[in-house]
Amino acid sequence: MRVGATIFVQNYPDWDRYEAEERGESVAARPTTSDRSIFLDEVNIARIADETGFDAVWTVEHHFTPYTMVTNPLQFLTYLAGVTKRVDLGTMVVVLPWHNPVRVAEDVNMLDALLGPGRDIICGVGRGLGRREYAGLSVDQAEARERFDESLQIVQQLLATGQCSFNGKYFQLQDVRLRPQPDSDLSANLYCAGGTAETVQIIAKHNVRPLVIPTTSLDAALQNTQMYMQLRHQAGHTPSDTKLALWTYCAETESEAQAGADRYMVEYADSALRHYEFLRGHLGGIQGYQSYGALGDALRKDTDIFRRAFVREHPWGTPDQVVTKAKQLAEAFGASEIMFVFKYGGMPQHVAEKSMQLFAREVLPALKEIHPQPMQLVSGWSPTQPAGLIPVDQAAQS
Fold first, then answer.
1. By C-alpha distance, which of 99, 94, 91, 96 is closest to 120?
2. Burial track 72-109 (b if 16+ CB lie within 10 A, e otherwise)
3. What span, in angstroms and rounded, lies between the C-alpha atoms of 324 and 309?
4. Cβ partners under 8 Å of residue 103, min gap 6
5. Pairing of the two strands 190-193 and 209-212
């Protein structure tokens, strides 16, 4: 199995100042720790990954808040291509409704040309969720599903053939051709995140493989992936691998790992609640986001459930404990690659690097030896029925 490292670039301690400023209160103009210093520190995660045997370095796209500060993942990865020598590079994700899809395909194609033979760019795409981001980029979030569907088809066609004609509601293209001309079909490197039933239906229909980013819950992500596999089967496609993002914290002793997970994973979960505004109550009224509205209703009753679940579900502990949990999750999701997030919340850089170095020495070799098979369909389960969440422990044994 492939193992990647993901760079998030969070400024978690700035959330209180940011939200006070958003409310119109008088606050300092800048965070205590500068955004740019965090950005430059985290480049070292790519260097460590490149030097210690990881297969890929990944990053994300977000805008305007301290949640993550990578506004252009393909630009960031182009810089990291020069910092590293051997790792592949991946996006988790480029949010398609915020971009012109032709430009996305062009940027992927150009980075692929710069990488040359022996290194790949894996293009993960998604639909996006953040209200502030849609508003700040002047995109109507109610149009997100249709824009995503059209954009996905255009990107997939351009990566596959280097040319595209398309006549849709939002995009009309007549024989657009990529230059520099691609040397090969890049569409096999296209993956898509699907956090809702609506997105899962789109990516299964278009035969795009799933990129699983469990921002809310691994159990919910597992259910969505099961839905994808069922829909994929019904569309006549063969079984598919997945790429799975996980948060980790690795330490010499269980007590040290417990302390780190209880602090930093809880902080990450809190940052997700605040960035996506799950408690605000607006998502249930936006077309294509109703399931997130239901999640918000549940979280308003007890937000600690979300924070505790994040710690419970993700692989932290001693190296042996991390190997055991990560293997279980890889088997449950049929993962061909796991992308581990090493620095998140308010975790200091030196703490993240210590965890990552231990992981590289004692966890990475064991995970590279496993070969999970694609997820099997769940007997008797239908994507149209309101099935309960299937615990990952149980799914790994089914």
1. 91
2. ebbebbbebbeebeebbbbbbbbbbbbbebbebbbbbb
3. 18
4. none
5. parallel
Q: How many residues comprise the chain?
A: 398
343 and 42 Cβ atoms separated by less than 8 Å: yes
With b meaning 16 or more CB within 10 Å and e meaning fewer, what string describes 208-237?
A: bbbbbbbbbbbbbbbbbbbbbbbbbeeeee
Count of other CB atoms within 10 angstroms of residue 49: 28
Q: What CATH number has the domain bearing residue 328?
A: 3.20.20.30
Is residue 231 classed as helix, strand or coil in its secondary structure?
helix
196 domain-assigned: yes
Residue 281 lies inside a defined structural domain of this protein: no
What's the CA angle centered on 388, arms 382 and 391, to 5 degrees? Answer: 110
Q: What is the pTM of this model?
A: 0.93
Q: Rounded CA gap, 71 and 112, in Å?
A: 20
In the numeric block, which tokens belong to residue 377? 């369909």
Q: How many domains does the chain have?
A: 1
Distance of CA 165 to the CA centre of its chain: 29
3 state SS for 29-91: CCCCCCHHHHHHHHHHHHHHHHHHCCCEEEECCCCCCCCCCCCCHHHHHHHHHHHCCCCEEEE
Euclidean distance between CA atoms 90 and 333, whole angstroms: 19
Q: Using one digit for the tens of pLDDT, what is the confidence trace for 230-242?
A: 999 999 999 999 9
Per-residue model confidence as pLDDT tens digits over 182-221: 999 999 999 999 888 888 999 998 999 999 999 878 998 9
Residue 50 lies in domain: 2-272+314-397
Report yes or no on 299 lying in a domain.
no
